[in-house]
Amino acid sequence: VGARVQAPKGTFDVLPEQGAARLALLARCERTLGAAGYGPAETPVFEDTELFARGVGAATDIVRKEMFTFEDQGGRSLTLRPEGTAGVCRAYVEHGMHKLPQPVKLWYWGPFFRHEAPQAGRYRQFTQVGAEAIGSDDPSLDAELILLLAELLRESGVAGVRLRLASLASPEARADYLDELRAHLRARADELSEEVRERLELNPLRAFDSAHEGTRRVMADAPRLLDRLPPDDAEHFASVRALLDAAGQEYEVDATLVRGLDYYTRTVFEFTSDALGAQSGVGGGGRYDRLVEELGGERTPGVGWAAGVERILLAAGAPGAAAEPAAAAPRVDAYVARAPGADAVAAFALATRLRRQGASVRLEQAGRSLKGQLKQAGRLRARWTAIVGEEGVELRDMETGEQRPASADEVLAAVRAGA
Ligand code: ATP
Ligand code: MG
To answer: Is the pTM of this model over 0.70?
Structure first.
């Protein structure tokens, strides 16, 4: 016996109960996003490393610490995708989608990879659902996307949802602000945590995220970008807010909202759930008006979000994620049993004919005695059991216990009729 091979650290297997909950969520995404004009898209799970270095940003935690990067046999540097927006924008440029009516609206679902310390709700392979609207800077797209994610979380039963919202302005206005912030941090560097001090030049915004007491004190009276938005960015932000207000969507404007990706401009937002512990983020996103250009396309505005499928299910108390009653077992129309000496081919053929007429059918496939088979049919709550014997078929009504000889056609008719 060889040593047991286990799933790699930070990965998990999806077993049927949880698989059913995931498929139900996928169907919900398809319905909700499809109804708003978002079409399904898929991009490769690995891309040129360059895409993320340029798109996500070389200074971000994702690119610096969390990517699974490898060389292929041709010496190319590839990376398992840590997020979806960069790949979608690459595809937008690669397929000349700027020639389509704008905005191009896409949604996706699939595996993503980040090399981080695994814990509940934080994995090295996880699933995201995401939506993007590329080709227009209309504030109704920001509001629409926020409302769609809110709706998905509500339909999925995610408890204690909160929405935080901010604007990061344009890169130019942000650069001016960052200089101001750096000056503030430098002036009180001795009060900051070592980590923040080290990242001061590269990513001073991260200081807003710090739990370090001294850093928090310094940040309490740090300048806020939201107070310094240029007029057009301020107007855009006000429009997004007015649309959310009109829709009755609650949110909190949070000037300290930091997102872990460099490509955001203007609107940023994050949904959290009180039902989650430390990993409270269920989904987030924002506007990325320079990303397409960064990836070699024309300057094209865009906005989108991504949400963690596992965190949604965790926060909704879905089966397999928390103690919840098991979902109702799928209906079984007929169980095809075999009496001793029965022809296995005839039994299989009957099961096949039943399945071809659309019935949900199980058959004996584990060498049980006839008694064991009837017990199994009962466990599965089969509506009918067809017992194939040497002399023909007996049809048993599992509700009344009544049993009578029946031709194959009669079995098909009874199962089709249901009751
Ligand atoms: P966190 O602050 O929890 O690290 P993040 O800001 O890195 O989240 P995003 O890049 O915004 O997350 O990704 C969107 C969503 O994807 C998150 O809100 C979360 O639900 C999910 N997610 C991100 N990283 C992981 C992970 N390692 N495992 C499971 N889900 C994740
Ligand atoms: Mg993260």
So the answer is: yes
